[in-house]
Known about the structure:
Layout lengths: L1 H21 L3 E6 L3 H16 L3 E6 L10 H5 L7 E4 L2 H9 L5 E4 L9 H10 L7 E5 L8 H14 L4 E5 L5 H7 L6 E5 L3 H10 L2 E4 L8 H8 L3 E4 L5 H8 L2 E3 L5 H13 L3 H14 L2 H9 L2
Parallel strand pairs: 1-2, 2-3, 3-4, 5-6, 5-8, 6-7, 8-9, 9-10
Helix pairs in contact: 1-2, 6-11, 9-12
Amino acid sequence: MILSVLYSLLLPLRFWICLIKEKPEKVIVNTSLSHQNLVRDGILVLISKLLGCRTILVVHGFQRSKLKPAFLLKWGYFKSDVIFVLAEQFKLDIQNAGYKGTIMLQYNPIEDNIWNEIDDVVKTKELKHIKNILFLSRIERSKGIYILLDAFKVLQAQYPDIVLRIAGTGNELDVVRKYIHDETNVEFMGFVTGSDKLKLLEMSDVFVLPSYTEGLPISVLEAMALGNYIITRPVGGLVDLHVKSNFGLLVESLEPADFVKAMKYAIEDDVSRIRKNNMIFAKNNFSAKQIAERLQNI
């Protein structure tokens, strides 16, 4: 705790010294909208502007309730020349909070090593066959895990070969394990990363995330990149992403029955074209290199 506080206090000083030494024309500050970041990264933006740098703020996570401290916003974030956000709604929220500068939309990047897998997946993945459903997120009620489990129980009665894999950890993990009792077609994968995560995404056909709220989950972008049909809710940046990519289905409600319908559609209809388009869209839009080049050209 003490080390964390000391780091937070020393960061602005180190940042100031670095800018004086390097004399960059442009500074990019990556942040998420939270009270802690609003203070810390707001100071970095202010320092950058005081030293005459063109300053770009990239906002990944977004908590609308944190757009309240007008003083902090005015003397921090809103000193930026350009702000990047994940969704049109976030853009409107920042404008309504009083920002007068340029706001642009930008997806989050996904790991570079995923692109090495895509061409092989396109050639070998059976896009017409739907058998494996994946939930990859924190195991929390707010991520809709119980909605999915209730829906899957109904779905499995109609399609006995369907498998649900749950990847991640969280406060509800032990409760969820008890909740499913002895369901044989539900597998817990634990926390996955690196090559293990890529393999899991490759073997999955449908990615389901019934979240109550979201920004723009990296897991959805990765699932698209590896040919998954996406079923989620119209929250955060997922709305804009669906408009631009048509990645699958957005389910308005939080009712398990509606997610049963969505998963049945994916199983019974030929969604292979959408799954292939998801891979193409991801390759053209989620590359870290492409995103970095765009930021450099602002």
